[in-house]
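User: Fold this; tokens only.

Assistant: Input:
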Amino acid sequence: MKQLTKVMKALSDPGRVKILKMLERREMCVCEMRHALGLAQPTVSKHLKELVEAGLIEGRKDAQWTNYALTRGEASAYSAAMLGQLRGWLNDDEEMRVFLDKAETIRREDLF
């Protein structure tokens, strides 16, 4: 029950859903997500922590960067099921499509 409620809580925030939809397209670092979402870095980090704890995403160190991606390995049945469903959701939503198209162009190399 605890793992299910973690997954459902993680999916209850629009910002976290946007993060998951961005990560469907590619790995991203915190600075890229922060820029796309227009949120402060601590806020994005809190969202990422909740998504990691729910088993929906994972981080991978790459020099000074931590790149985040959807969980590929050990995922709970709940997180795997919800990630599978989310892939088919919001794809026809115009607001989400515009957001994701904008996010797709953001590269960390251009931010510094």
